[in-house]
Design goal:
Chain lengths: 189, 514
Amino acid sequence: MNRRQFLKRGVIGGALLSVAGLALYPSRERGVDAASLRHLSPRGFAILCAVAARIVPHVADPTRIVRQIDVWLDDVAPDAAADVNKLLLLFDNALFALIFDGRLSPFSRADGDAQDAVLTAWRDSRVTVRRSGYQVLRRLCLGACYADTNEQRGIGYQGPRRIPGLSFDDSKMGTREWLAANTPPGGKP
Amino acid sequence: MSALAAVFAHERVIDGARASGDLTVTADTCVIGSGAGGAVVAATLAQAGKDVLVVEEGGLYTNKDFTMDENDVFPKLYQEGGRRATEDLGVVILQGRAVGGTTVVNWTTSFRTPEDVVAHWREKRGVTGFAYKELVPHWDWIEERLAIAEVKPSEINKNNAKLKEGLEKLGYAWAPLKRNVYACMQSGYCGMGCPYNAKRSMLVTLIPDAIEAGARLLHRARIDRLIESGGEITAAEGTLQGGKALRITAKRFVLSGGALNSPALLLRSGLNDNDRVGLRTFLHPAIISVGDYEEPIEASYGPPQSVASHHFGNRGDEVGFFLEAAPNHPLLGAATMPGFGAAHRERIVRFAHAASHIAITIDGFHDATPGGRVKLRPSGAPVLDYPIPEALFRTFAFAQKRLAEVQLASGARRVLTTHEPPIEMRAASDVSAIDRAPWRTGSVGVFSAHQMGGCAMGDDPKSAVVRSQDLRHHRLRNLHVIDGSVFPTSLGVNPQESIYGLARLMATRLVAAS
C-alpha cells in the first residue's frame, strides 16, 4: 500500500469508524481565519500548531511556524499539499490512535508528555507511512523554525559573509527602464 | 553595461507570466528545459544557425535574486521549493527548477563520466552509438568554456579538510575535485545560486551563448503534453505561469527536462512505448554523517565540495559508494539533524561546529538496485516510486561506519547518524552500534542531489526509450531526449559534466545530420 492509498484508506476508514469518536473527542480548535490560510484547513492548522509546539518547544508562538509551512505548500505538487492535510487529520484521529497506540484522545488534546509519546510512537512505528509522516512533520516544523534569522543566530549561524564591492546587482542593466534612468541627455549609457 | 544583463534584456527573452494572452509559437527546434542538457543543445544548434526556442518551466533569476537565504531562494530555484521526495517519502530529492536548471544550484563538482561506466553501458545496456573517445573532445571544450579546474589546497574549507584528514589517517584514497568556477569568492552559497556569477552555470554561459546566437528563451512556461501524429510530434501544449495557454509547433523537439520531468512529460502525453518510460530512474541515494568538533567548522562557508574519495566505488557484489562533503546551512541543516524538542535543540546549537560528510551510493549496476519508476500524480506532476532496496541499506550501514571512523579519526568529539533516534558515537569502539540501527525507510535521512535515468538510451527499443547514436526516440522521428534521463545506470560521479559532454556530442551530430 503506497502513501496515497494509506492516507485515503486511513482517513476514510478512520472517519467511518469514528463518527461518534470524533464527536466525543474532537481536535482542539485554534481560532484562525480560514480565509487567511492558503492550503491548510483550519483543523489542519490547529493540529500542526500542536505538533510544532512539541518539535520546537522553545518557540513561543508556533503559529508563525505553521503559517510559514502554509506558504511553502504553494510550491509542492497540489496533490502533495492535500496529502499534508490528510496526514494531519490522521495524526490527530482518535480511533486511529486507539487502534495503533491504545490511546483515545486526539493529539491536539493531549498534554505535552503524551504528545511527545505520540510523536515517538509514529517515529518508531512498524508502519512505513507513520515513520515517513513523522519525518514530514518534523522536517517542516524544524525548517520553518530555523528559516527565521533570529533562530539562526541562536544556533551560531552568522549569515552570509558579504564581500564589499562584489555584491552588485546587474540584473536590470540594459533593460529599457535602466537605459532610461542611466542615459544622459543626448548621450549613451 | 553587463553583457549578461544585456543578453537577458533582449526581446528574444520572453517571460511567460507577462504574456497578455494565449501564446502560439513556431520554431525549427523546440528545446524543452534549459539545464545541463538543454542549454548545451540550444547553444550548439543556435550557433550553427538553427532557429531554436528554449522553453523553461522555472523563472529567469540572476545574481541579484541569489540572496543567500534558503527561505527566499529555495522556492525560486528548486523543484517543489526543495521539498520534492520519493513517493514513500524515503528520499528527499534536491533538483533545480529555473533558467539554467540544476546547474544554477549544484555544488560545482565536475567529473567526466568514468570510462568503465561507458564500457558497462556498451556491454550490458546496448549503448553502442558512441565510444568514450568521442566524448573526450566535448569534455575538453566544456572544461574550457566553464573554467573547470582543480581546487587549490588553499580553497579547501574546514568541512572538506576534516574529510581529507580522516581519509588520510585511515589510508583511504582521496583526490581534490574539479569545479566549474572562475574567480570564485568562496562564499559557500553555490546551492542557492552564485551571488557573484563566479559559478559557470548554464545561466551565465551557454544560455546567454544561445540567445546571442539567435535562440529565443521562453521562461515560466510549462509544457503539459506533446501531441503526436503519424510517428512525429506535431506540437507541444502547455501553460504559462498565470494560466494562459501555450502552443508550440516545431519541426523537431528536444526534451531536456531532466530525470523525473522528461519521463513525466512523455507519460502525460501517452507516449509510453513498451512501458519503459520512467523505469530505471536512479538517485545516487546519499546518507549523512554529522561530526561534532571542538573547534568551529563553519561548513556554511567556502567551496562546498573540494575533496572526494572513490576508495569504495567498486565493492564487487556489494553496491559501491563515494564520499564527499556537504555544505551546512540552517534551514536544511536543522531539518536534517535528527530528533525533536530538547534533544534536537541540544544538537543543533552545535551548528557551527558540525561537519557534514556524505556517502553517495552508486545505484543501477547491480540487479538488486534497479532504480525507481516515475509515475504521475492525479495532477500530472511527477512522483518517483523508489523503494530503497535491501542492498542499498546494507551499503548505507557499511558506509555510515566508514564515515564515522573518518570523522572520529579527524578529531570529532561526537559523531551522529541521522537515524531516528540517532546513533551517537564518541570512540571507534562505538561504531559497531550502527549495525543495530533501524535501517528502514523513514528511520534514517536519505537524500538525492543526482537524478538520472527514466528515458534510457540503448539500441533495443524493447528496453530503451531513445537510440544511443543520436538520442532520438525509437519510434518518434522528430523527438530527441538529451539530458540526464537517458543514462541507463547512475554514474558513480557527480553528473553535470557527463550531461554536458553527451549533450554536446549529440547536438553536433544533430547539426551534422540537418
